[in-house]
Amino acid sequence: MDRLILLRHGKAERDSESGDDFDRKLTERGVRESAATAATLADMGMVPDLVLVSSSARTRGTWAAAQGAFPQAAFRFEPSLYHAEERVVRQLAEAAGQSSATVMIVGHNPGLQELTIRLLAEGGAPSTLIARAHANFPTATAAVFLFDAAGRPSYDGLFFPKG
Questions:
Q1: Calpha distance 63→60 (Å, rounded)
Q2: Buried b vs exposed e over 77-115: b needs ≥16 C-beta within 10 Å?
Q3: pLDDT per residue over 116-129, tens digit each?
Q4: What is the rounded distance in angstroms from the CA atom of residue 78 to the CA atom of residue 52?
Q5: Strand pairing partners for 143?
Q6: Distance from C-alpha of 155 to C-alpha of 147, rounded to nearest angstrom
Q7: CA angle 100-98-10, nearest 5°?
Q8: CA dihedral 138, 142, 143, 144 (to 10 degrees)
Q9: Are 134 and 160 in contact (CB under 8 A)?
Q10: Gap between the Cα atoms of 38 and 40, Å rounded
Q11: C-alpha to C-alpha distance for 58 and 38, rounded to whole angstroms
């Protein structure tokens, strides 16, 4: 894997009709912001080869909103990403990265935010950037990292939602 894109799902409704957190859908704002973040990434050439998407309704909705910006990307729903811990997200990304240069994960907090902070720290990012990611990682935010031949991360961008 040369590049990893971590995309937090868009803004979701407070409650689902079923009452189950898994079934919460995106709001109109969530759809708009997810599409806008994806368009920003695509405009900057940050295009995934493979996208792993948590199987929850809000992450599937985020991918549906973002997919138009990445028409060539392969994707699969990954049930183990639902509220996955940071280490699980990283393991899935690294496994996918064995056959894909750029991997995108569409998932949830706190796992994505915690992985972002860890990768920033491992990559020697400035403390101000780490503090920013720690303080604020809203819905539809994307964190992007490059990896060298030894697998060491470096910061490639932090994109907050517009839309």
A1: 5
A2: bbeebbebebebbbebbeebbeebebbbbbbbeebbbbb
A3: 999 999 999 999 99
A4: 6
A5: 6, 158
A6: 9
A7: 55
A8: 180
A9: no
A10: 5
A11: 15
Token pair recorded at residue 54: 């948590």
DSSP label at residue 25: P
> Domains plus CATH for the chain?
3-159 (3.40.50.1240)
pLDDT tens for residues 15-53? 999 999 999 999 999 999 999 999 999 999 999 999 999
And the tokens for 48?
A: 């995934």
Q: Give the H or E element holding residue 142.
A: strand 142-147
- What would the two tokens of residue 37 be? 């973040």
pTM for the structure as a whole: 0.97
- Characterize the bridge pairing of strands 50-53 and 142-147: unpaired
What distance in Å separates the CA atoms of residue 153 and residue 144, rounded to the nearest whole number? 10
Give the other-Cβ count within 10 Å of 20's Cβ.
11
Three-state secondary structure call for residue 104: strand
For residue 160, give both structure tokens. Answer: 């907050």
